[in-house]
Protein 1
Amino acid sequence: MFLRDGGPPKAAALDLGLAALVTLDDGEKVDHPRLLKKYGARLAGLQRNLHRKERGSRNREKARQEIARLYALISDVRGDALDRLTTRLVRENQVLVVEDLSVASLVRSPRGKGRRRKAGLNRAILDASWGELLRQLRYKCAWYGRTLVVVNRFFPSTRQCSACGVTGPKLDLAVRGWSCGECGAAHDRDVNAARNLRVEGMRLYELVASTLPPGRAMPSLIRASEVPDVVRTA
Ligand SMILES: [Zn+2]
C-alpha cells in the first residue's frame, strides 16, 4: 500500500441493521435512537386524526402542522445521535466501509393483520436513520480527509464465514447467530457481516490506492460499482 505513514490505515466497517443500528467489525453495537418507540404511536395517532378531518378545513391544516412539527423533532433527535456517532467514527478511522444502502430492502414488513401501518412507519424511520448516517459519513469523510468505501450490495456479507471464507446457506432474518459448517467458527450474524465488509472494503481501497499517481490523495468516496473505472483511468 502507498500510504504516507507507511502503516495500514485504521479502518472500521459498519453493518447496518434492525437489531442494532450499526454493528462494527470489532463487535461494538450501536443502538437505534429509540425514535419509533418514543414517537411512533404519537405519529400514527396524528395521522389517523388528519385523515378524519375534512379536506380544506382549518382543523385539517392544524393537524398537518402538528405532524410536520413532530417530524422535525424526530429529525433533530436522530440527527444529534448520529452526529456524535459519525464524528467519533470519522475521527478514529482513516477508512470507513459500509454496504450500499439499497441493502436496506432487507427490512421486511412483519406479517399479519394491522401491522402494515406500523411496519411502514418503522421502515420510514429506519430508512431515514440509515440515509442520514451515510450522508453524515460522506461529508465528514470529505471534510476530515478520510475515505468512505461503499461495498456492492450483491456482496454476500451475511452468509460468508469471516473465519474461513466459505459461503453458507441463506439465513433467515430471525437468525442472530450461526456456526460455520466448514470450520466451526461461531458467529454473531452482524459482526460476521461487518468483518466481511471490512475485508471487501479494504480490498477495494487498496486497489484504488495501488493505481493512484504519487502525491495524489485518496478519494473521499469509493464506490464498488465505480472501481473498475477508477482503475482503468488512473
Ligand atoms: Zn468457516
Note: The chain has one domain: 11-233.
Protein 2
Amino acid sequence: MGAEGGRLFEAFLNQQDEEAWQCALAQLEPHLHEVDRTATRIWFHFFPLALARALQEAEDPAALARQLFLEGKYRLADQIDSSHRFLYGHRYWPEVKRALIAYAHRTRAPERMSLADHIREVAAMVAEERRLEPSLTLGITAVAFMTVEQVGLEAFQATPGTIALDPRTLARTPDEVLARRARDDRQRLFYWWKYPDKVWTITFDENDPEATFRLINRQHLTTAAAQDKRPHHLRDPRCVPNEGPIPVQCRSGSCGSCWVGVLGGAEKLSEMEEYERRRLREFGYIETDEPKPIIRLACQARAFGAVSIVIPPWNGVFGRFLRKWRQQQRPMELMGTP
Ligand code: FES
C-alpha cells in the first residue's frame, strides 16, 4: 500500500474543512482527559485551518502575511514537533507521530470512517502501546492529524519527532498538573507588608519552572508581565526588551500582539468587556459570547488569582479577511471545486 496509502490519506484529510473539524472536535471533546481539554481547544485557536489554507492558496503568501500583519512563527510547518508543547500529551508526540505515519500509509479507504473515528483509532493504538488511558492521547492525536492536513505528510515525516522536556516535567501526573493549575498563592507576611494587595503567580510555560511572573491583585496581565525584566526578546523577537514575556505594542486592545490562551484559572480573570470581545473577533482569534473565554487579550484582562497562560508564537489581524475568504469558498464548494 505504502505511498498510495499515504496519498489517499492526505486526500481524505484535505477534504476536512473547518466545519468537519468542528464536528470531529465536538465528538472527541467529552472523551478528552481534563488535563488536555482546554489545551487542545487553545491549540486549535492558535493554528486555524482557514488561515493556513488562505496562505497556501495565495499567489504571494509573504505579501498576504504582510497584509494581515502576521508576526512571529505563524506557520505550523516551522514547528511541527513543538507547537503543542503546552499539551500534557506532548510527551507522547514521538509515539503519536510514528503511529499516525504508519496508519496513513496503510489505510486503504479512509473515507469509510469519520475524521473523529480515525483520530480515536490512532489515539487508542498509542494508548495501548504506552499502557495509558486513551483520553490522554486523544488531544495530541487530533493535533497530529491537523498538522498533517496543514503541512502535508511529507513535511510531517521529515522532522525528527523528538521532544525536549526535563525529567521533573515528564514525571508529573495529569492530576498533579491539574492541582498546580487550581492552586492559589498563600499570602505571606512579607507581601502584605510590601504590597497592600494580594500577589499572585502567573505561569506562562508550565514546562519551565522559571516561566512565572508576579501580579498584584487586579492588575492587567501585561502590566504585571512588564515587571519581569529578563531578556525575553532573545526567546521571542516579538517581545519588547524590559516589557516582559508577553509581546505588547499598544496596551490598548488595538494591535493584537498580546493574545494568550488560558490553560488554568480562566475564572480568576476579569469578565470580558464588549471592547475586548469585538477586538478578538476583528483580530480573528476567537468569536465567543463566553464571559471568561480561553483566549484573551492580556492587556485587557485583569487577574484576581493565580493563572496559567500560554503565549502563542505569533499574532496578526485577519478576522475580516477570513470572513470574506470563507464566503468566497462557499460557492466553489457548492460547485464541487476543491
Ligand atoms: S498590546 Fe496591543 S492589543 Fe494588547
Note: The pocket of FE2/S2 (inorganic) cluster is lined by residues 248-251, 253-258, 297, 299 (CB under 6 Å).
